[in-house]
Amino acid sequence: MHDHHDHDHDNELDEMTARVRALETILVGKGLVDPAAVDAIIDTYEHDVGPRNGAAVVARAWTDPDFADWLRKDATAAISSMGFVGRQGEHMVAVFNSAGEHNLVVCTLCSCYPWPVLGLPPAWYKSPDYRARAVREPRAVLSEFGVTLPETTRIHVWDSTAEIRYLVIPERPPGTDALDAGALADLVTRDSMIGCDLLRAPA
Amino acid sequence: MNGPQDIGGRHGFGAVIPEDESVRFHAEWEKRVLGVTLAAGALGYWNIDASRHARESLSPAIYYNASYYEIWLRALEILLERAGEVSADELRAGQAQAPGQRVDRCLKPDAVAAVLAKGGPTARPGPAPRFRVGDRVRTRNHQPKGHTRLPGYARGHVGVVTLLHGSHVYPDTNAHFEGERPCPLYTVRFDAVELFGEDADPTLSVSIDAWEPYLEQA
Fold it and tell me: Of A153, B1, B77, B128, which residue is the least packed, with the fewest Cβ within 10 Å?
């Protein structure tokens, strides 16, 4: 599934494809990189590790007060108890939205993001546009996601400048009392766990 | 360093373009960059701070014109050249011209899951923290030529310590292979008006994570 190429000459590669292929060819030729390991890494983040993990954490926090309490006190331990561990999630903090305060996560200096619970960061999260503006004008940024917060809601932006990774726990939508944790997790969007979406009750 | 990466609060950038969470990559080559970067990390020539520093040391003209995976790829080439594992001639030719050195550390497919699950925790034993939750602190006017994680917009401002994280590896030295020198790490919260002036959103506050050498008593 290549992007927007309409020619079919295999030897006419776009610049970036050629560049990474050259480097991988060199490293494999030297015995420094095993292409099957590269495949396994890609497969992990393409198919296994993604935002449904975080959605399960959020749904459990909504339905299990003891777990929510654990998440507030030691998010690293609480999240790892669900099997979500490892690279870029070594030190976790969960921040809870409330009626009075909304949390938003950014990494102004690079692209720090909680991989074990949200997967790889989306392109916009890594873009200079988001990184420059999220700390100064989050309401304008949120409007680009179709989100408008009440004028009196306090906004707390978390700039991930160290190895602490932040997971936003969005508010549970009204009218969801009858839903179990699995159905609740389906309501939780990736963007809501970054702070860029508000959740709605199921239609 | 006051490099192209340090853009928090800067003006002139454009709209954020949301996308569906099912989109994981925008091109096949991006997948290879991710995989090769992580696999090459297993060779042990650099740490996460050194790799970030290689990315932010790209010239601003290149940095701002590159997608994030292109930044990763360019930095990876530089890190491998610096390690002596890849030469400029090889990159031009696209072929290996000399054997690899750390072939014994080549990441094997059956080790991938364990390596990713292990990650790279940065918490370390370290000195007792000088500040406590609730303390008012001022960030130093800390502008090293080398790597730092104190963003420009948050220098020289007064905030409140809200979280203590124990001691963590200090990126300013670790990026330059001058030792991990663990020191206390804090979350410090600032009012946006303090950071961005009187026209800033009065409902907004911003937190950063700051190592103790970035801070002084306010």
Answer: B128
Instruction: Report the CATH number that the domain containing residue B102 is assigned in CATH.
Output: 1.10.472.20
Going by pLDDT thresholds of 50, 70 and 90, the confidence category of residue A176 is very high
Indicate which residues of A carry an active-site annotation.
Answer: 107, 110-112
| Burial of B99 from C-beta contacts in 10 A (0-12 / 13-18 / 19+) | exposed
Q: CB–CB of B95 and A26 under 8 A?
A: yes
Mutate one of B29, B107, B118, B170 to test the A interface: name it (highest A CB count within 10 A). Answer: B29
Q: Which domain holds residue B96?
A: 28-118
Strand (E) or helix (H) holding B191 = strand B183-191
Given a contact cutoff of 8 angstroms between Cβ atoms, the answer to whether A63 and A156 are in contact is no
For position B188, which CATH number holds? 2.30.30.50
Domain count, chain B: 2
**Is there a single domain that holds both residue B95 and residue B110?**
yes
Tens-digit pLDDT profile for residues A27-57 = 999 999 999 999 999 999 999 999 999 999 9
Domains, chain A, ranges and CATH? 15-47 (no CATH), 50-193 (3.90.330.10)
Last residue of a domain, one of B118, B135, B160: B118
- For B138, counting Cβ atoms within 10 Å of its Cβ (0-12 exposed, 13-18 middle, 19+ buried), the class is middle
Shortest Cα distance, chain A CAs vs residue B170, angstroms? 9
Q: Does A19 contact B at CB distance below 8 Å?
A: yes
Q: How far is B59 from chain A (nearest CA, A)?
A: 15
The alpha helices in B42-178, defined as continuous H runs, are: 48-56, 60-65, 68-82, 88-93, 112-118, 171-174
Both B84 and B167 in one domain: the answer is no
- Could you report the per-residue pLDDT of A108-164, keeping only the tens digit for each? 999 999 999 999 999 999 999 999 999 999 999 999 999 999 999 999 999 999 999
**Closest alpha carbon within chain B to A197:** B18
Cβ–Cβ of A17/B28 closer than 8 Å?
yes
- Whole-angstrom distance, CA of residue A32 vs CA of residue A25: 10
pLDDT, tens only, B184-214: 999 999 999 999 999 999 999 999 999 999 9
Residues of B in contact with A109 (CB under 8 A): 5-6, 8, 52, 56, 149, 151
- Check: CB of residue A109 under 8 Å from CB of residue A161: yes
Using CB atoms, pick whichever of B34, B43, B151 lies closest to residue A32. B43
Contact B8 A46 (CB under 8 A): no
In chain B, which residue's Cα lies nearest the Cα of A1?
Answer: B28
pLDDT at A2: 45
Looking at the fold, whether B127 and B43 belong to one and the same domain comes out as no
Establish whether this prediction's ipTM goes over 0.90. yes
